[in-house]
Specification:
mainly alpha; extended
């Protein structure tokens, strides 16, 4: 999932459009990242099974519940 796709999904779950400010890159910023879960699959039998939209929805819900407990 691309970062801006994740931002859009978070906005949908929060019920509002999120504003993204694009700033110049800083020293040490990674331009490209990619997750490779093959080692976890090979050694632990772990494979992610949650769709990004479902996972983000659960994460946003968790934050909402946590915020309301304070």
């Amino acid at each position: 999932i691309e970062l801006l796709e994740a931002v859009d999904l978070i906005g949908i779950e929060c019920g509002r459009e999120l504003k993204v400010n694009f700033l110049p890159s800083r020293t040490g910023d990674q331009r490209h990242t990619r997750a490779d879960c093959s080692l976890a699959l090979d050694r632990l039998g772990y494979c992610a099974v949650v769709d990004p939209s479902e996972g983000i929805a659960k994460q946003v819900e968790w934050h909402k519940r946590r915020r309301h407990r304070r």
